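Good morning C.,

I know you're traveling, so I'll keep this short. The sequence:
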Amino acid sequence: MTTAVTAAAALLVIAASWGYLRDVRRRRADPRLASWAVFTAAMGVGAAAAAVARQWPGCVLTAAGSATCAAILVSGWRHGNREFCRLDAGCAVLGAAGVALLAAAAGWPRIVPAAAAVAASVITDLVAYLPTFANGWRGEETWPPFAQFAAAAALTLAVADFTVPAGVIYPGYETAVNAAMTVIVLASPRQGGRARRGSR
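The tokens, ready to paste straight into the viewer:
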């Protein structure tokens, strides 16, 4: 049961990202490279931290997110938006802190919990994600991909071990942030556009 639900959640993440990835490959969309780099790294650290804690549903969900973000980053590398601002610099610092916490959690698990690295990754992702809320309200996003991301995370939570924070922090965050984004897009007076998480 857990394996099937975990696989379904990962497939939902891939399906939700597929349309935007296709548009990037066809040069119909120009991803903001700094944002997608942050998403890739933050989710990668989150996945690794979940693996260190042996929380496989959360690990697979977050790894699927990191892989799809990396695919978008690579596909848009030549024609994407290369702007780099203070927000990106802040995310880079937070991301480095997450990597350091992950290394510490792997080396000294009794001193530094893996949940600390996951929490740092969530904060990094959220900071990079904030401009997307504004995009949604301006009608520059579509709601289905965000609803799919939220559903994937909710499925993961359904089979997660709630006694281990490293396994539930990222799925919980993904459920909340994507559900909120879905509501914002649906409530926008200017619905339309194309989902483009992190494009800013």
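Safe travels,
E.
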